[in-house]
Structures are given as C-alpha cells and as structure tokens.
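Running this now, will post back.
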Amino acid sequence: MNENATFFEGEYVVFTFSGDCNQIDAEDLISIAAGNIQLKLEFHWKYNILMVKPEEGWKKGYLYQLKMNGYLKIDGQNIMACIVRNFYFGNPILIPELLENTTVYPDDVKSPLILYFSKPIDIKNLDENIKIYPHEDFTQEFCDSDKSITIVPKGKWKTNTLYKIQIKELTSVDGYHLKEYELNFEIPIDTELPELLKAQRYINVGGDYVLSDQEISELKGTDGLYFTFSKPMDLETIENGITITPYIEGIINPMDEEGYCFAFIPKTNYRPQQEYEIKIDRCVTDKSGLKLRQGENLFFIPKENYLEIIDLQLNQTEIDPNDVSINCYKIDFDEKKSIKINETETEYFFTITMNFSTVFDFTDYKNIVDKIKLKLKFPLTASNPYLKQVTWLTSNRLMLEYGNISLSTKETPVYYELLVSGGENGIKNSFMETMKKDLCIYIEYFAE
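Update: finished.
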C-alpha cells in the first residue's frame, strides 16, 4: 500500500521486511483504527513477510487508519519505522455518498427535508442513524428505489432556529457504510409581529357554542370570547397572557390546529351591568417566539340574560313560542296517541316537547317540571288533563306527555292552557337565570 493510496480492497495489509526481525516487536508497533476505536488485529507470518487484518474483518466503506511507529531491530540494526496510511476499505466506485448539492431543505415550517444518495440505502434503524437537533419527531418516506429519504416533521419546524442533522452508521443495501455527515439548515427568519385581529361573541346555545359576527359588547350569560390572531400563537403564553377583571373562572381552548383562534369559556355567569376588562399582555407570543405588536385592553358590559324556550312541539307540530299573533294553536288528532279503555271509552293524550336555551343540572329537573302546567280552560265539563310521563331527552330538551285530553270539535270546542312560569318564581337554572316572563298559549286538540 503506497503512501498516496486512499482505498484498499485486499484481505491483508502486507509488510515486507528486508531481513530477520523480532515478530512480537514488529506486531507491537502496528495498529489499525476505525474512527476512534483501536481494533484487535490478526497477524500471519511467512518468513519475513507479515500479513495483518482486523480480527472481525474489514467493513466496506469504513475509514481506517494504519500505523507502524517505533524502533525495530532488523538483522541486528535499529530501524525507525514511521508509517501512517488513511484509507477507505472497498471499491471506491461502490462506496455510497450523500449528494449534498441535491439536498432539498425546508423552505417553510411544514415542508420536508429530502436527502439524496448515490445508491439505495438500507432503511433499517434510521431513527438511530439520523439525528436532528434541536430534537424533532419526524417520519420518513422513501422513493427512487430507496435512494432518497424524505423527512417530514410530525409537528412543524421552528422558525428562527438553526437545525443540525447528523448522519451516522448508514449503510447501502449491499453493505457499504456511508461516511458521517453533518448538515445545517434554518427555516426562513420570521420577523412579522403578530396582532389581535378581532374579538367576538361566542354564543352559548344550550351548552353548545356558536361563533357569531357580534362584538363582545353583546355578551351575556355564559357566552364565550373568541379571539383571532394574525399568526399561529403559542398556547402557553395565551393562557398566561390573557386576564379578565373582575376575575371570572373559565378555560381557554385552541379552536384550530394551526393556532390562530382561541376561545375563553366561562364557568359561571357574568354579572349583568358589571364592566369587565380583558387585558391581552404584549408578552403573548406566536409560535416563533415573537411578541404581539401591541398589548390590548378591551371592555364590555354584559347584557341581562334570560333563558328562553327556543322551540316548542305539540305532538309533531312545531310552533313558535314567541309568536303572539296566534291566540290558539289547533293540533290535529293523532290516532297513535290514544288508548281504548273499554267499548265506549277512549283516553286521548298528546306530548309537549320544549327546547331551552340553556342546559340544566339534574337537580333542577323536578323544579322545572313543577313550573309547567297544562289545565282545562273551557268548557268546564271537559276532561282535566294529568301529567302522564316526563322524559328529559337531553339536559336542555324536555318532553311531557299529558293524558285524559278531550277532543275538540266544531260543535264542541275544547281549550287547554299551557303555562310555563317565568320571572323570579319561575323556571331557573343553576346560574339563577330565569325566563323574562310567563309563556302562556292555548291549545285545541282538534278532531275533524
């Protein structure tokens, strides 16, 4: 092996001595290292020829350093040996390379890193062979017959961050080791400061929240606050940087995957006519760590909030409980809602289903049913109804079934009065919200 050799393919490195020498002394002067690791060697002598190789054999593509350094007696004379050779083992044409000039670096927070190689790569243990600092969880995809690796972050690359990629111990499918590589890349620097774009009313409809176009001045009851920012924001700084005075308990939820929108959901009612201040501190940052362009101070006074019956069904007929133009609702007779008692008597019944604007606790249920009455209005000779069954379909949807109903005819009209009590002594929920006033409608169960 001459001093200019950079590759070696033989089984042994061969030393030829000009005369007799002490074999043990000669062996002690020789070392072979792979990287920083000194290898155990295997020696074979034939006359004055010494053949050397690693005990565990050569590894294709590895960089080795061979040394023979020190004094050795040959035919009784002290000879200084100083030999150093650095070489890769294997055929230079077959050693794989990372094609650095074709590497595709991410140009935004979601785009992949693509590494191209001169030959197909063994894809086992890639998580151990490719390291990214600062640490990122990523997935790998392979194409071009495993000659390229596409690295996709499971989340997002961080802006304003210098990433380092270390590639170690990769091998090609034919067993050649790739040399170690270290690459650096940076996501384009983000200098745009985030801003609050708008704050809106997030309406509580029976426990479900609906985004409205209304400003926060329209808030009432347990409505939420919906914030939209110009850039994806950091949740932790949002939670710590938004405060409401006077204090009201609640939680802040991210409303989209990217982090542009957040909602504050109160756990208790706002106090009517109490002025509240929302302070959004400038310490709130986007996901790049940039602070808000400016802090915000927003004010609102909650409106008085009343619970409402937002829809009402008599049997399967939907009516508008707020339509005061109708004096009496005629409900067509439903044969299914009757029970034959004997040859001459039949009991008629119908259901009333109402959907409230707010949810109720289980402990409120009895009080609510007690505040709903159906009674005979005219004529007094007709049957008085009774409450046959109560069913809570959801925590804000109630179905009541009344029996012993008299049918109304053209000749003998029969009227019933449905009264749902409002005000301080009427229906209320655990937030002490009440209906603004009584709901009173007249019903005629009509049989043609």
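The helical segments are 23-28, 126-129, 235-241, 365-370. More later if anyone needs it.
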